[in-house]
Amino acid sequence: MTRAALLQMTSGIDPAANARALVEGVAQAKAGGAAMLFTPEMSGLLDSDRNRAAGSLVREDEDRVLAAVREAAAKQGIWVHLGSLAVLRDDGKLANRGYVIDDSGAIRATYDKMHLFDVDLPTGESWRESNSYTAGERAVTVQTPLGVLGMAICYDLRFPDLFRTLSDAGATILAMPAAFTRPTGAAHWHVLQRARAVEAAAFVISAAQTGEHEDGRATYGHSLVVDPWGEVLLDMSEPAGLGFAEIDQARVEAARARVPVLRHRRAIPAAEIL
Q1: 168 near 191, Cβ under 8 Å?
Q2: Could you tell me if 207 and 7 are in contact, meaning their C-beta atoms sit under 8 angstroms apart?
Q3: Rounded distance between C-alpha atoms, residue 87 and residue 207, angstroms
Q4: Of 113, 238, 246, 253, catalytic
Q5: C or N: which end of the chain has fewer Cβ atoms within 10 Å?
Q6: 241: alpha, beta or left, given left = phi > 0 and alpha = psi -120 to 50?
Q7: What is the C-alpha separation between 261 and 214, in angstroms, rounded?
């Protein structure tokens, strides 16, 4: 078994403060015996005020939060899945980009969020992620100390085809960092996480934002680790902080032996209206 750590955060509008929290989380995860730390979506900046946020949005090679986490990973000798950062692309738009960083501080993989959150909620909340962000175009898996990791971000959770692709490519762990709203979280967070785990017979590791943020939004929390049989191994509820879970690849083998869903998958032709 290998230990994973999850950092549940209440990220704010100051990247430097968020970087300090991340660096502290890296050190605490290492001290707690974790081989890898997972952090939420938008770990480096959570700010819905576009004008205010604009001064903090930079290219990947200029991002001080990314640099601080890479340095901390190397110093502590621990892998980090940095859930996501908002990074400036060459075309002037943004990518919601996740990173896997190894224990030398090297970036092993990046993933740009494919499904963008454009919704109007009954509470009056309205989100148009596509106004600022460009969607990613490729699924990503990467070998880590915990196993083969498939990368996703937040709203991706609702699109099972992505996770079929990741598990077909060998993923035994699915990472879904998030900043879920409270209404959608209360309705769908747990059931979707468990469904993705059962469908793929894989671990799901989902570090989340939580609480009341400086920009006025509120997020759901409940960072989760779900095993390949759908059992919740860790639910961090609402407080910010660090949690740990043991990842045992034998659970993947056992679940896939009991119900061999990956072997039973078939290509589905388009349906016809009769």
Answers
A1: no
A2: yes
A3: 20
A4: 113
A5: C
A6: left
A7: 44
From CA 167, how far away is CA 196, in angstroms rounded?
Answer: 10
Q: Which of 24, 41, 62, 214 is catalytic?
A: 41
Closest to 28 (Cα-Cα) out of 39, 17, 44 = 39
Taking the C-alpha atoms of residue 45 and residue 80, their distance in angstroms, rounded to an integer, is 17
- 75 flagged as catalytic: no
Nearest to 72 by CA among 111, 41, 102: 102
175 and 186 in contact (C-beta within 8 Å)?
no
Q: Verify whether residue 30 is a known catalytic residue.
A: no
Q: Model pTM?
A: 0.95
pLDDT (tens place) for every residue of the chain, 274 residues total = 999 999 999 999 999 999 999 999 999 999 999 999 999 999 999 988 888 988 889 999 999 999 999 999 999 999 999 999 999 998 888 999 999 999 999 999 999 999 987 665 566 555 567 677 889 999 999 999 999 999 999 999 999 999 999 999 999 999 999 999 999 999 999 999 999 999 999 999 999 999 999 999 999 999 999 999 999 999 999 999 999 999 999 999 999 999 999 999 999 999 999 9
Does 113 qualify as catalytic in the annotation? Answer: yes
> 271 φ, ψ to 5°?
-80, 155
CA distances from 11 to 196, 212, 219, 250, 255 (A): 26, 9, 10, 35, 36
